[in-house]
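Quick log. Single chain, no ligands specified.
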Amino acid sequence: MRGLGEGSGPGQGTGAVEGDRDLEDRVGDSSIPGSQDPGIHISGPQVHDGQSSGSHATLDYKALDVLDWKLLHEITDDALRPLEDMAQDLGCAVSEVRERLGRLRQLGIVREIRARLDPAAMGFPVLAYLMVRMVQNADNYDVVRDMFSEIDQVEEAHSLSGQFDWLVKVRARTMQDLRQVITRRFSIVPGFVRAETLMVLDTACERVNIEAACHPPDPRLASPDHEAGAH
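-> predicted structure:
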């Protein structure tokens, strides 16, 4: 794991310290928040194409009930809260919170919990999105994918449809640093043609929008009786 030493980028290794410590005692495995260690980093089964790579259940949000959704809201708001406080807010026993959190990890719903740092406070105030055009094929796609993930300053990299092939989110210390990332790192990626740089001037919000997911649609709205009554 890349640590906080020289060369660490803002997206990798900037405060996520791996370990489980007292979580083993509290939950029975390293999947559950609740540790008071602010540097905790817990990884669960990774999810690709809607499937969990773990040996547990298949990812299926439809298996969640109202209490599960409320619990997701609790841990996305503050994953370091004691389980006792979560249980009190949810009106259930601590053992049920622990059990449900374990099941959410097994389902692949909770993939990982990590510290979220302020990039600007750590000296990475420059944020840009790069629209990258590549000449890529089945032979070099995986190489390109791996190389983007290994560039320290890259926070996100997404393969796209349309006229551009990749959308890459980059944080840098200075404009010169950003230029060097493009000219020295991106230029050696196989098939690289050019990158259109979009500089971020301001950020209104930056989060996984769990708020919408925490309010699943009322099943009555999808019923035939409701649709018939709407006409």
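DSSP finds eight helices and nine strands in the chain.
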